[in-house]
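Tutorial, part two.
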Amino acid sequence: MQLRALRYFSQVAKSHSLREAADKLFVTPTAVTRQIELLEHYYGASLIERSPRGIKLTREGEYLAQVIQVTLRELDTVKEKISSSQSIVSGSIRICSAESLIAPFICPAINDFRLLHPKVNFEIEVGSAPHVAEALISDKADIAATFYMPVNAEILITHSCSLKHKILMTSNHPLASKSMLSLKDIAQYPIAIPPSNFSVRQLLESSAKREGVTLDMRFITNSIEVQKRLAVMGLAIIIMPELTVDDMSTQERLISVPLSDSVMGMVKVDLGLPKQRAISMATKTFHEVLSRRIEAQNMRQ
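Running the prediction step on this input gives:
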């Protein structure tokens, strides 16, 4: 039995789709199917079930997927230890982050890191704070960054910083000429905002309730790209952290105005690691690079 078959099956278990797994492995669906057939022959059991909705693992497949995940992680650790003994940082780093932290923090840190360690691969996933925390707890991520990381005994928050929230809109929007905005100001206009499991939505609803303000949450989407497009088209205003605003406002032709609310005005960014799980040398080194960027943000305040 080849290691390739284990890696292919592990990707199928994550993707629940032969085609999606093949795309991520840069091979054909036929090649993936062949490796799964080899595993089924080796173990003498069916590992997957095909249906119109996609791929579902059998009971035997679920068990094998769990074992393979642990085995592959241990093999990667061995590879990293060997590389470390040769003064080479290698392997892969799985990052789970809030989407709006990718451009101002994650990507610049990756760029700095790869200048010294080009052999490391990255897997990057985005999601809400609960999703980010769950990815770290369930060993689907090695390092995590989000707004207001949920408190959990299995998560170690190593660094934090605060960012200012700003309101973004087109240059001809009625609010664009103001130097500061309140919740009452923005309540008059449609807002594009993430779903209720995102911290910015929870903070906004809490602040609005405190102020007795009813907001027009006209567009609900977890995609920053969709939010930006709605703002550029003049269909909505959006709320973004300051660094993300700086990253995109020029190219997207949006005006940013600070929000004066005591709660919504600032947002906390948390960087986390698994508390009870050993991390690789690559993850440890990348964490040091990323933490320096967060510390630099604290020094600017």
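The mean pLDDT is 87. In part three we will examine how such features are distributed along the chain.
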